[in-house]
Amino acid sequence: MEFKRSDFLKGLLAATALPAAAAIAATDANAGSAFQPDNTAAGPNPWTAAPRATPGPLRFVVIGDNTGLARPGVFEQAMRQVSWLEPDFVLSVGDLIEGYTNDRAEIDRQWDAIERAAALAGCPFLFATGNHDFNSPAAVEAWKQRRGAIYYAFTYKRALFLVLSTEDPPIPMPRDMIDQFYRIVALMKKDPDQVEAMMRKRLADGANGHDGEYAKGLNVANISDAQLAFVEQALKRHSDVDWTFVVVHKPAWKMSSPAMAKIQLMLGQRPYTVFAGHTHYFTHDRLDGRDFINMATTGGIVHELGAGNMDHAMLVTLTPGGPVYANTRLNGLMNVAGDTGQTRAY
To answer: Which end of the chain has fewer CB atoms surrounding its CB within 10 Å, N or C?
Structure first.
């Protein structure tokens, strides 16, 4: 008697099919797994696509700053590397473009390049406003036309995400500093080794990546009253989620920010995690039993010497016991051939 493999598989599937009650229970277990944005305004969205309602736990990747002074090729290859992890989506903490210029055509060129790179991740990419992304009138206009809201919330797989803005309102850069900055941007494209050596010498001499009179203003987190009201309402609407993830570009908890203190009070006793970037230096703080994670870079230049200077991506998996974090250096995230594809990653 001839036995076909297809017949065997059909029989196996029939024998292991879920009873109707079990199927209903599985459906109930996935309740709340669909992507539900909290901002319902018409127009562009601050994500490339909505994450799909897939089975399995929530898995997303957080990335750090690509700018200021993006080292050529690091971010683009990082997106290819992230695709190997197959997350539900990639979540940026901001500072993707160099920005600051009022040349709208240049701003659009920079965003076009980022969108091409983000597509290499092979999954939805979610944006947050960094100071480089949202500053000059041209940059502000471009964000609103291309990205829409500067802060937003959504639920997905039983988690609430609050993607907030520390550039509300933005802090513009003086014109003379813009010209100086873009001279260095041009040099970075031409001779990244020279720019890297210049920055490391400054740091070795005791400077910091955010030193200077103007840069002091960059260490201020601007979070408007309207944004605080938005946070309060979003938390009230979604009191039954399993976890809350908060994203701010600047690590406002390090900046004596009254607004951030209010947000922490609003979060109360719910389980949550906070992500930030901006400093180009990785730190992990435990405040009130919660994780406050300051991402380093995913392409941006070094701002501080030490163990926290790295290019990395963080894979977050939400388990019944809470998030599990896989913090991975780009120069250690390899494909099956043992290659990272990175040549300039820290």
So the answer is: N
